[in-house]
What we know:
This protein is mainly beta and about 190 residues long. It folds into three domains: about 10-50; about 55-115, no CATH class; about 150-190, no CATH class. It is built from no helices and 15 strands. The protein has a three-stranded antiparallel beta sheet with strand order 1-2-3, with no helix packed on it. The chain is elongated.
Amino acid sequence: xxxxxxxxxxxxxxxxxxxxxxxxxxxxxxxxxxxxxxxxxxxxxxxxxxxxxxxxxxxxxxxxxxxxxxxxxxxxxxxxxxxxxxxxxxxxxxxxxxxxxxxxxxxxxxxxxxxxxxxxxxxxxxxxxxxxxxxxxxxxxxxxxxxxxxxxxxxxxxxxxxxxxxxxxxxxxxxxxxxxxxxxxxxxxxxx
Length: 192
C-alpha cells in the first residue's frame, strides 16, 4: 500500500530557487506560477504534474549512452524525416528515416554523415555528372562518360602457361591521333 503523507503549507520568505523545505512541503513560485513539491533534498523542489522529462540517446541495442535532464520541450525539424517508436509504456525512441549515414567507396575511407551533413560528388576526368532536381516523382543523378575527348588504349596481350596476363605493347590515343573518317573507317595515326 502506498504511503500517505500530510501536506504542510506555510508562508516562507526565501528565494524559491534555493528553498528546500521539509519533505512533503508544497510551495508556489509567484514569479512564474509553478507549484512545486519538496523532496527534502532538491533546491527549488520538484514540479507537480507535467514536469520535466529526461531525453536520452540510445545505441542500436537501445542502451542509454547519453541523457539530458530537466527538459520541458522537444522540437523536431520536419524536413529531417523523423520516426518515433514506443519502447515501453513511458519511453519512446526517435529515429531518422531516409538517410545514408555511411557511404562506402571501395579502396577509400568511409564517408560518415553527422546530422544534416552534405556530400559533394566531383566528376573525375572523362566523367559527366548531371542532376535533375525537377524530375517527378524522383530527383536524379546521371553519371556518364565524356566522349568529347575520348582516349582509347590498344593492348597486345597474351596469357602465359601459368595463366598470367602478359601485356607486351600499349598505345594510347585520343582525338588528336584517332578518328573515324567520312567512309566510317577508324584511322589511327602517330599524331603528326
